[in-house]
Amino acid sequence: MRKWLITTTSLLFLLPSVSVAQGLINIESASSSVGEVADRFEAVLKKKGLKLFMRVNHAEGAKGVNLELAPTELMIFGNPKVGTPLMQCNRTAGIDLPQKALIWKDDNGQVWITYNDPQDLAKRHGITKACAETIAKVGNVLSGVANAAAKGLEK
Fold it and tell me: Taking a C-beta distance cutoff of 8 angstroms, is the pair 115, 142 a contact?
């Protein structure tokens, strides 16, 4: 038991900081550039066969109305082969699709990737056990893309 605990604890130090709050998953990036992380995120999406529908630069939008906002980009992406079955389970899931990831810099200069926890979306839309496999697949893909972009690995 002690060996397992030491091994598990040691592995946690190899992973980027991850937190879950209010249905969101936050992953700490190794990079201090939102644009660089967003570019990597986009590259990983492409390699995984996901479609980037839109990339929204909120900081640029703020500048357009003479306001300031720390670097913040929203990635809107998905795959109809995965999203459609979720909407077949419960059509209201469509309000949360396509998937979104927010890449942003906090007040301390740390860059984060934030996305909706698929398990929280499943609860929100009453997605049943019949679609649990799809929810798990979405979670694995989101985690893989976000972690690869955060670490600078374009898997």
Answer: yes
